[in-house]
Design brief:
The complex is a heterodimer of chains A (382) and B (221). Chain A has two domains: 2-52 and 236-380, no CATH class; 58-228, no CATH class. Helices cover 54% and strands 21% of the residues of chain A. Chain A has twelve helices and 13 strands. Chain A has helices at residues 2-17, 19-56, 78-83, 137-143, 172-175, 183-190, 208-219, 229-266, 270-282, 287-319, 347-374, 377-381; strands at 60-66, 69-71, 73-74, 87-100, 103-109, 119-124, 132-136, 150-153, 156-169, 178-181, 195-196, 198-203, 224-228. The chains are: A alpha+beta (382), B alpha/beta (221).
Amino acid sequence: MNKHINLLLLATENLLRHKAKTIVVCLCIIAILTPFITAIAISEGIRAQSLISLNADADLYLTFDEFGRNAAIPLKYLDEIKKIFGVTKAIPRIIGRAFIQNKLAVIVGINKEDLPESISCISGRIFENPNEVVVGHELAGHFHLKISDQFSMRGQQRKTFTVVGFFSSDVSIWGASMLLMSFKDAGELFGKQDVATDIQIHTLPGHNSEIATDLYDILQSEPYRLQDKQMIGLYFTKGFMLKEGIFSALYIVAFALGVPAILVVSGFGLSERRKEIGIMKATGWQTLEVLELISFEQLLISLLGATIAILLSMLWVKGFNGAFIAQFFVAEITMLPKFTLPARFLPLPCLLSFFFAFLLTMVGSVYSSWRASTVSPVMSMR
Amino acid sequence: MIRTEGLCKSYSHYSRHEVRALYDVHVTISKNSFVVLNGPSGSGKTTLLNIIGTLDRPTAGKVFLYGEEITTFSDIALARLRREKIGFIFQDFHLIPRLTSWENVSYPLIPSGIGFRERFERAKFLLEKMELGDRLDHTPEELSGGQQQRVAIARALINNPGIIIADEPTSNIDEDTSTRVLELLTELKSRGVTILVTTHDFHFEKIADVVYKMKNGRIEC
């Protein structure tokens, strides 16, 4: 045991003695790992928010199906749906997109009493009268909107809206560019009366299959689509896994291209090291002891590099709100997101980062050290 | 104590031509003797020393140390032998540049699991004996050639070896320091250590028990 402690302490001393090399290798590890950890943290954060919003929302989502896509559902079925046994609430919504000047906004039309509890006004009030809107904070910031300001949508001048409040949401990412208005106003805005883009159905636990049967009876002659929470959750998860996968694949390519650079950097001072290994062997060190020392050095440098990379990632997300990297995961946002970007630093990606760093530095050093320590000491000392 | 039988060594790694450094070398060195190997450059002295000291392996022949044939030993066994029984003094000192004197001296003790305090005390004791007590924290570049050689000697002695192998230990140092090195080796011999030295220095021959002369990879006498 004392031998291993000695080797660990010596590895620490060696890193301190080779400050320049240690710093350069650490910087390489940090440069490679920081964007990766940040991206994964943002992706996990968004995924978590998606699941939070999903769990807080309805149990079933009902739409029509047109050309294999979701389509608007007529409101004439709403009353019948509400009467189904097990349905506690059926909420029609209109969700669409419209431009305010050059900026795309998400329009949510919903009756005031049906607004989710997670949405609350940070200033002003919720809409009560026709043509009143509540604006998400990013949109408000972008147009410097104030309470009682008026505006129209691009290309739809027939309605003028008045800002009556600004809202925040537990799921910041969805609320940032959102405009909330009454269901009726949204229908008028898009010129579609008596339809909803979907109906959210809240149910009593365990009644979904009976409700689905009843819906079939009601809508059997119509092309409808019914999705439950688990299916939506699956879409979310699949979507994020795909995005993470694409990002990881691109990153691995960059990583592979960077490996030769790291090899050169971590092999820095190799001839000096080779001679040192020769001296160690000549004075009685065994090959395994030499390799253990080198491994401890790489372990420590990886731990240091990965820890700094994780801390910098946290700073990147918390301090700089994921600037420049959030675009990979959130569509239609600027390089500097104007809402608080969700992020989660899970243990597994952090451990994997450390593992990557260790692997990288080991690849750069162990083979050359192993070669130096397996030839005769005389050869190494030359 | 040390015996070689039919030792041959040839090199052909980076050359199309095989270079033969040793031909059928037979040497016997008894315990607690002071043996000098001399001969012109390229005669094979260093190669013979390296093979006896287990730093290199012969192409053919056998080496016996303490009655055991070591040419068949594994690398691990050879490393253990070097650690416990053999101390080396090199012509170019071979100190690790970033380490201080005491760290260089105590370096071979690290894999033995000896703690920091004991390593320091043992290195300090030997360096004080080498009259380098005031140079414990100096790196090699802060020391003269003679001082570096004394640090290297201290390192060779740190494990109390039974054999000291010195390859031209005085060729890079001044005459006064050479005399000091010779005195140190003589003192070691008086304490029962077997000394094997290659040198051109005639002072060593004067006090040697046996002098082997080498030429073209062979022992001449």
